[in-house]
Amino acid sequence: MTDTPHSDATPSPDRSASDVPSATGVHATTLWVDADSCPRAARDILVRAAERTATPTWFVANHQVPLPRSVHVKAISVPAGADAADQLIVERAHPGDMVITSDLPLALEAIEKGALVMTTRGEALDTNNIRAKVQMRDFMESMRSSGEHTGGPSAYGQREQRDFGNALDRWLARIRRPKPRA
Fold this sequence. Notes:
Elements: E1 2-4, E2 31-34, H1 40-53, E3 57-61, E4 73-77, H2 84-92, E5 98-100, H3 104-113, E6 116-118, E7 124-125, H4 130-145, H5 158-176
Parallel strand pairs: 2-3, 2-5, 3-4, 5-6
Antiparallel strand pairs: 1-4, 6-7
């Protein structure tokens, strides 16, 4: 596994960004991006949001992900292999972190660990909808393997980009709000 630094303050490979305390001394909420399936337009939205909100953001893939130099945005390149990036994301994500993925098995594992999950189309995945989505995916996969042509997802256009950007902004605003004192 290789952490690709985009600043001098990159944690070592055995220490995740989410293990780095924030200025308040508590875990800083981190965005974990399944970069193997992340559309370029969504990647650009994530980079701008991370810079604007100073949110630690890690792009994890089994290939080099082109990213601008940034204190807040980093990449980790994992060895090629089935689900290596997914495994790293699940290992490093903390409860309350956001995982950006359209990979439903990864989403399920992240949710079970306490992370929040959003697709690059802005759809929130949670305990109320993930199991049904995984079952539907498995059903469609069995249909395709029997020769049925089921089609795929629609193109990632302006509407999907807008929906994702708006959902990401709402989530980032929500985590930045001061917590009421008990």
